[in-house]
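Hi U.,

Before I forget, here's the chain from the pilot set. I'm dumping it here mostly so it's searchable later in email.
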Amino acid sequence: MTDRPLSGKIALVTGSNSGIGLGIARSLAARGAAVALNSFTDRKEDHDLAASLAAETGSDVRYIPADMSDGADCRRYVEKAAEAFGGVDILVNNAGIQHVSPIPDFPVAMWDRIIAINLNSAFHTTAIALPMMRAKGWGRIVNIASAHGLTASPFKSAYVAAKHGIVGLTKVTALEAAGQHITCNAICPGYVLTPLVEAQIPATMKEYGKDRETVIRDVMLARQPSKEFATVEQIGGTVAFLCSEDAAQVTGTTISVDGGWTAL
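Structure:
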């Protein structure tokens, strides 16, 4: 069994210059896939990150900017990546943002932006990538949903609606691609220890007047029974499994990586 089972495959990962997306990109590149990193910025640091990941993994990694709030730009991202690499085999829809507010006060512009980035972008990228996968006779689509794609929390109306929508889109995509050696699944993480979450811990400690361990266990992970964060490496490994031949008959489903959150 090769330690680079995805050699020859081309993977697109939206929202992948940090956090979960970068962890997924690293996991796929380490297994031999060529990877198109993505975010909405177009800085030297973004392209340097791609070069660094290429040197680390020995895979072809390039940075392709695109604004996931713009449907046309989402489609162009897939087209540019396919032109640069020679096709698309794996699509990971990871881009997402969050805003917390009661429904009556929820800013309309923010609602629209969250739905655009967290849900609409996956529709646009899938619409372009799916025919390319059909032409190759193989494909893997992995949508990064959330525990909030299966349950809800107050004050997160747009995020919860978008993530529930992602789960629904996943099922429809799987059915439309059934029998074509193309799968589509959703991963539903709970709290994942990303640099962004790590940066929130000191402020939360100050707000609640509690030490780090207590804040993590009783505040941040109050709904996560394991009382442990998931890691970006674990999410990346789950994506890699779904892209493997072992998962060829896993399609149209959700995989929770949430420490038991949705088992409650």
